[in-house]
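Tutorial, part two.
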Amino acid sequence: MSATEEYTLVKEEPSTMGCVEFAATAGSIILLILTLPFSLFWCFKVVQEYERAVIFRLGRLRTGGARGPGIFFVLPCVDSYCKVDLRTVSFDVPPQEALTKDSVTVTVDAVVYYRIQDPLNAVVKVTNYSNSTRLLAMTTLRNILGTRNLAEILSDREAISHAMQTSLDVATDPWGVKVERVEIKDVSLPQQLQRAMAAEAEASREARAKVIAAEGEMKASRALKEASDVINESPAALQLRYLQTLNNISAEKNSTIIFPVPLDLLTPFFKNGTQVI
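Running the prediction step on this input gives:
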């Protein structure tokens, strides 16, 4: 039987008043009448828009559910009430040290946002709903971390937050508490593991840099080969390349330049090994 059904049965039970309860209620009413109008200051109570009041009469929950917002009436000496704040409350989960699925020790802290959904259950079903929710959040966080690998904890915090919220919401529902949001704040790793991961990342970056450099050299070699093929097809293009290189060098540095002259340029001036003038 669920908590909602149990409370439905309690509300539907006839309110049988015993002799002692009847006498105490009657005495309270007589006292209220005798002390008018001063007793009105203690009989009328006010709760804010974001509050609800759960009233007990001689230890028994009064019918009608939680009162508020606004003014409600209590009898002196026989009625007591408890205010419940319905606004969203947040608290920090202390850093929890847990062993992950791949046997790595991590320290994780989180923040939880919750609110009171059912004031009656929050007062009747649990002694201190705030402290109970905090303790449950700590144990739930450790349990969830134990089912995840280190890579999942570092890369998929949203999934961990959602799993923790779902688990907390189911566990705190009988208490009238609604867990609205859970956020993972920080994941701390041991110093030795941090150095190992940094070394691994550095080695991976160096390997990628070498691969990129090798690919660049390969592409440059292919381009040079294609250029040499084009120049080889046209000897005049080779001569123009020589002249262009000479022009660039002379423009940058004014110094003596030894420039090799291709033998193809001197071929017309030689015939059978004899210089032709």
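The longest strand covers residues 105-116. In part three we will examine how such features are distributed along the chain.
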